[in-house]
From TrEMBL:
Keywords: Antibiotic resistance, ATP-binding, Nucleotide-binding, Transport. It is a peripheral membrane protein. InterPro entries: AAA+_ATPase, ABC_transporter-like_ATP-bd, ABC_transporter-like_CS, ABC_transporter_ATP-binding, P-loop_NTPase. Gene3D superfamilies: P-loop containing nucleotide triphosphate hydrolases. It comes from Streptomyces kanamyceticus. Pfam families: ABC_tran (PF00005). It comes from the Bacteria. GO terms for molecular function: ATP binding; ATP hydrolysis activity. GO terms for cellular component: plasma membrane. Residues 10-234 form the ABC transporter domain. This is ABC transporter ATP-binding protein. CDD domains: ABC_DR_subfamily_A. GO terms for biological process: response to antibiotic.
Length: 308
């Protein structure tokens, strides 16, 4: 891995904010490197620090400590050149202007794309003559996406980008971003919709109270922080002590109808050992076996419930 492939380098970043007389540690010793082509989801509960970290990476907020490098330097020049694109929560939009005029203004500022191309990409063609003040919440989000993509950015920061979008618009939104990512864009986004992270991100970073508490692929997080559930029946009862001794097993239960339910941190190992033990013995072979694997939602919930 060469240094040139790292587009974002956040080191030991602290952010202290003040509210009334209180001192709030919004970020604590945060370190993050993002490589070219990655799609990174920043997850965490309300107030965990996702927006603060996004603002720090965009240079909108100066950290109290630590360093931030984006595209090899401070974020300002990248933003000015259109190489960095951003869609922020509740960012204001210019008033008394039509959608097409606003997109044209920004594409001309960067000089890298035709406005018609951006309007078509974001499905804004039909809204082109509409006043910005007359857009619905979802339409405003689409316009914000158009503005973020106007400079053909290499690096995109999106803070809760799909918040006002209906299901169809969300699907279209992720299609557009997938297309951008396939063309080589690197994307960092925050979301509370974990299935979006599951589907779109190849890496997930979880923040809790200003600290990064997990960083890995969706699969890594699922297997590190959750259990799968294995259930089955047998004609002859199996001793609980044997089931408890299987690798990965955390809990065992026997339902009224005789179904055995095991929770396991390693379902592959549990099942292999189970079959090895009962294999060939009449009446003890599992029937009606079901395996329920954990979701990213379960993994993040487990992580956020854990003690600090
Ligand atoms: N302008 C501000 N002034 C003071 N404190 C702030 C300010 N903005 C955020 N905070 C505090 O900083 C901490 C981190 O907030 P941040 O907005 O980064 O969280 P978040 O993870 O983006 O939350 P959400 O999911 O609600 O958007 C919180 O304790 C929040 O109350």
């Amino acid at each position: 891995m060469t240094a040139a492939e790292i587009l974002v380098r956040v080191r030991d970043v602290d952010v202290v904010r003040r509210r009334g007389g209180a001192r709030i540690q919004a970020l604590s010793r945060v370190g993050l490197e993002v490589r070219r082509g990655e799609r990174v989801a920043l997850l965490g509960a309300n107030g965990a620090g996702k927006t603060t970290l996004t603002h720090v990476m965009l240079g909108l907020l100066r950290p109290t400590g630590g360093t931030v490098e984006v595209l090899g330097g401070p974020p300002g020049p990248g933003l000015a050149a259109g190489e960095l694109g951003a869609m922020l929560q509740e960012s204001g939009l210019m008033r008394n202007v039509r959608v097409g005029e606003l997109i044209t203004l920004v594409t001309e500022l960067y000089g890298r794309r035709a406005s018609e191309e951006v309007l078509a990409e974001c499905g804004l063609g039909e809204l082109s003559r509409r006043q910005v003040t007359q857009l619905s919440g979802g339409e405003r989000q689409r316009l914000r996406l158009g503005l973020a993509l106007a400079g053909l950015p290499r690096l995109l920061f999106l803070d809760e980008p799909t918040v006002a979008l209906d299901v169809a618009a969300r699907g279209r939104f992720w299609e557009i971003l997938n297309e951008r990512a396939r063309s080589g864009a690197t994307v960092l986004f925050t979301t509370h919709y974990l299935h979006e992270a599951e589907q779109f991100a190849d890496r997930v970073v979880v923040l809790r109270a200003g600290r990064i508490v997990a960083d890995g692929t969706v699969d890594e997080l699922r297997s590190a922080f959750t259990e799968s559930r294995v259930s089955f029946r047998t004609d002859e009862p199996l001793p609980d002590s044997m089931l408890r001794g299987l690798p990965g097993v955390r809990t065992t239960e026997e339902r009224d109808d005789g179904t055995r339910v095991l929770t396991t941190t390693d379902s592959d190992a549990t099942l292999a050992a189970l079959y090895a033990k009962v294999g060939g013995t009449a009446g003890t072979v599992p029937r009606g076996l079901t395996l329920t694997t954990a979701s990213l939602e379960d993994a993040v919930a487990t992580l956020l419930e854990e003690e600090h």
